[in-house]
Amino acid sequence: MTVQITTLPNGLRVATDTMQDAESMVIGAWVGVGTRHEPWNANGIAHLTEHMMFKGTKRRSAYALSKTIEKNGGAMNAYTTREETAYYARVLPEDADRAADIIADMLLRSVFDAKELDRERQVIIQEIGRDRDTPEDHIYDLMHETAFPRQKLGRSILGTEDVIERLPREKVVDYVNKYYHAGNIVIVGTGKIAHDELVALARRYFNRLPSGAPAKIEPAKIKGGQKRLTKETEQLHLMMAFAAPSLHAKTAPAAGLLGTLLGGSSSSRLFQKVREKRGLVYNISTYHAPFQDTGLFCLYAGTDPQRVKELIPVVCKELKDVTTRVTTSELNRAKAQARADLLMGQESVMRRAEILGHQVLTYNKAIPMQDTLGDIMKVTEAETQAIAAKILSRAPILTALGPIDGIESYAAIKDRLH
Fold first, then answer.
1. For the segment 221-276, what is each residue's pLDDT rounded down to a tens digit?
2. Among 3, 42, 170, 311, which has the minimal tally of Cβ within 10 Å of its Cβ?
3. 179 three-class SS
4. Domain edges within the chain
5. Measuring CA to CA, which residue among 321, 301, 240, 311 is closest to residue 277?
6. Which of 50, 145, 330, 354 is catalytic?
7. Range 3-205 classified under CATH 3.30.830.10
8. CATH no., domain 225-417
């Protein structure tokens, strides 16, 4: 991995992962701010700000921003998470200057026009409605809300209609002024771009970014509990979650492998025992979702409401079994899947940009892929069982969406797990 990082005098970090054999590049700005940094009365402002960055600057209209990148075959996009926001363009090497100019223009000179803001509010309100109509998305938000009650980490990335409807322009401007500064941003380049080239572009286009310190977060506290919501759907959607290791925990690799082993593929335990042998679900999966200071171990299942009474005991039994029995063959299979995922991701300039931006924001450094692989490969069966036991010793978070009448009580489910 040919990664280099330079910090400019204003505190802006410039990170590159050069791929000499690539035919394209990604240039982007990763910002250390997301839903959990929002003011209490402005849920959704991180995502709204991301949208508004594309709606015109002092130099370019919204159309001109897109056209400048797309007229030579490039593409531009962005995303918001609970802890990060990213803006990026994928272009050919000869368009590196243009991509850096456009992204800097968006971050430094967006005008946040009042009419555009009104229109974008309506777009996001439709997006909120779409997610509410998508049970897999809706239940994920319900799970976060239940795991982190009255906490910023528990709030929806999209926000709520009533808040989005009345967020004033001044609030968006204040939010950008507070968080969009050099100390909280990493300029990332991956693919066919030299480090010195991106440093020069960053000096030219981002030199007006003011200095500042990385954004701070309020510590999160996970609580067990449940939320059940009746909805007219064909399937019953069910999630269980438990407190799990954070991004910085030494046990995070074991938690990730546990997610793969239990429900990360069609050869995993739960997929085989619950779907293939019993036909109780169409979808079932498990995964580790780590954050800066905490994490969640999540299980999702979609089932016929008539089968839920049979489903829950089987799932709970498999969860309990993994605390005392992990075979060498299944752990090796999970490691092979994790290794392949990492190595295959190295072929993608976009995936490498996401990894590099996230790592520099999270750890203030890039982690060599071989170190990540080493941490995964040295996890033992005993360590996997131990992290499973620790995770499952916590009070479960249960969320259900759909025809929920057949689900047994929270206390009964908790007893099955313990």
1. 998 999 999 999 999 999 999 999 999 999 999 999 999 999 999 999 999 999 99
2. 170
3. helix
4. 3-205, 225-417
5. 311
6. 50
7. yes
8. 3.30.830.10
